[in-house]
Amino acid sequence: MFIASAHMNINDHFRAMVFDVDGTLFDTLPSLAAAANEVLEHAGLRAIATPLLRPALSEGLVPMFRQALALQTETIPDGTAARLEEDYLALYMQRGLATTRPFPGAAAALEAFATQGLRLAICTNRDRASTDALLAAAAFPVDFEVIVGIGDAPLAKPAADPLLRVLELMGLPPSQVLFIGDSAIDARCAQAAQVRFAAHLGGYASHPDDLLPQVAGFDGYDQLTQWVLKRLPTDKEACHA
Q1: Residue 121 forms beta bridges with which residues?
Q2: What is the pLDDT of residues 158-169, one digit of tens each?
Q3: Non-local CB neighbours of 105 within 8 Å, separated by 6+ positions
Q4: Rounded to an integer, what distance in angstroms lies between the CA atom of residue 78 and that of residue 61?
Q5: Which end of the chain is more exposed for a tag (fewer CB within 10 A), N or C?
């Protein structure tokens, strides 16, 4: 399925594609949930069904694990919670990265965008270390010019701060950027930053309405690629830009 808005101003050409990570470029939920539940069960706690962890992942890796702790039938002491959180992150970095795969077509889309001269960036609620490790494991055939994660801006998504930081580092106005994400947090961040938003419909949103407003929604990256490339300026338009 592909959804396109009829209200997009085609005169504002894209110069950069900015991507969320979890649920957008990568299907990370299975590996993160597995790491969380292995740590919980080893500590004698109850495993949490993956769908119950899905909404919290958009806030970051640590919020997802804290949701798993909050769903326990017993109260977890702060010291124990902190230790388990460290164990979860360590286990994920040791084993989870190797089992995480990009969504089908993501690598080809990135390469197609880069070939057309579009600049690429990352805006995520992940920490920088795990983001870098994930990107290195994926070995995408392109480089991301800018990566903004947790701690790189005063506030995390859904605040506009991280996306505005990306724009600042790239030296681009909001009108020339497309932000691709999969959650209400991403949609709200884009709206706050006045950046157009394309929704990955196969990500981790709880409901389709969470992904509004959007200029496009896509199930497969081939759909996004075709839609973006059709909206790039022609040689004649570029000469008069």
Answers
A1: 18, 146
A2: 999 999 999 999
A3: 220, 221, 222, 225
A4: 18
A5: C
